[in-house]
Amino acid sequence: MNVSSVWHVLKWVLAALAAGFIGQFGRVLAMRLIARRRKKRDTQANNTDGGMTPSPEFLLNQEKVKALVKLEKKCAKAQVKKAKKKAPHGKVTHRKTQEMGLSQSRKERRE
Questions:
Q1: Which helix (H) or strand (E) holds 47?
Q2: Can you count the helices (H) and strands (E) in the chain?
Q3: Which tens digits make up the pLDDT trace of 26-63?
Q4: At CA 47, angle to CA 42 and CA 49, rounded to 5?
Q5: CA–CA dist 103, 80 (Å, integer)
Q6: C-alpha angle with apex 55: 54 to 56, nearest 5 degrees?
Q7: How far, rounded to the nearest angstrom, does the alpha carbon of residue 87 sit from its chain's CA centroid?
Q8: Measured between alpha carbons, how far is 18 from 32 in angstroms, rounded to an integer?
Q9: For 54-110, what is each residue's pLDDT tens digit?
Q10: Domain edges within the chain
């Protein structure tokens, strides 16, 4: 191996290292710029909110409503389970649950 071929290989190794260095720090710089832009956008969104934050009473009422809906669903599920145990072979059809008033349409469940 002569000196020119060693120098040629060394140039390519240095070029690869430089590209890796630039790539890594370019990535870090891009991530910082993205984070800065997100932070700026979030602060602007909070400022343009107009101070319309829901009152604590409203939030508490919402939580109560959610809890009541959840409790109703649990009770309905327990009734269906009870009906299944009473039914022969553990089968309860959709029609039977409708007759019991336990079945709800998708629209009713969403409300």
A1: helix 3-47
A2: 4, 0
A3: 888 899 999 999 998 888 877 765 556 778 888 888 89
A4: 95
A5: 9
A6: 120
A7: 40
A8: 21
A9: 788 888 888 999 999 999 999 999 998 888 888 766 565 666 565 655 555 555 555
A10: 1-53, 54-111
